[in-house]
Amino acid sequence: MKNDKIKNIIFDLGDVILNIDVPLASQSFAKLSGKEQQEVLAIFKEKEIFRQFETGLLDEASFRNYIREIIHLSDLSDDAVDTAWNSLLLDLPPERVSLIRNLSKSYRLFLLSNTSSIHITQVNKILKASTGIERLEDLFEKVYLSYEMGLMKPDPQIYQQVLDEAGLIAEETLFLDDNADNIAGAATLGIDTIHVQKPLTILEYLKDYAA
After folding, report:
1. Nearest-CA neighbor of 176 among 137, 209, 147?
2. Domain boundaries, the chain
3. CATH homologous superfamily of 8-19+93-210
4. For residue 66, with 0-12 CB atoms within 10 Å meaning exposed, 13-18 middle and 19 or more buried, which class applies?
5. CATH code for 23-86?
6. Tens digits of residue pLDDT in 33-84
7. H-helix or E-strand containing 143?
8. One Pfam family of this protein, by short name (predicted)?
9. What is the edge-to-edge ordering of all strands in the sheet holding 173-177?
10. pTM
11. Cα separation of 25 and 84, whole Å?
């Protein structure tokens, strides 16, 4: 149901705009290393490598080197690391971009994503191939990325920073995310939320806003 107070919409990226399959990344690294996928997942969790990368504690070179170190593949090329890491990124349906462009006529639109620089480079390639649009920044008033902010959802501070920098009022702002914890984090600040859950997409959740 449409909230008539809403003036601003903040979108998550993965499984909201872009389709993703997170386990594919660990599966790809498992194939490269000859390890079981669960072993790779356990190593990554213990080292918090993705959290470090997605909050900017590791730059691209440090991330690739750390991957080589912890899965014991010193000769793995940069391209091989990037390809495995990007394997979780799937397609970006053009109709979702059309919806966003339509919504931009009536609302201030923002993107807030837990992500890394390697992923964003690839996402922009997928976006251009799918729609002809060069980069995410062409769709939103501002793109907020965890690795640039040094914060990750669901930390309430990341939402507060977006509100403060963009001059948004929480009660006039709608946030869409596929992760229940991220939704809860935003809701603590009074932001209106929609938990995007498959098989529904933003086309269904936002149809009243686009009308």
Report:
1. 209
2. 8-19+93-210, 23-86
3. HAD superfamily/HAD-like (3.40.50.1000)
4. middle
5. 1.10.150
6. 999 999 999 999 999 999 999 999 999 999 999 999 999 999 999 999 999 9
7. strand 142-145
8. Hydrolase
9. 142-145, 108-113, 8-11, 173-177, 192-195
10. 0.96
11. 6
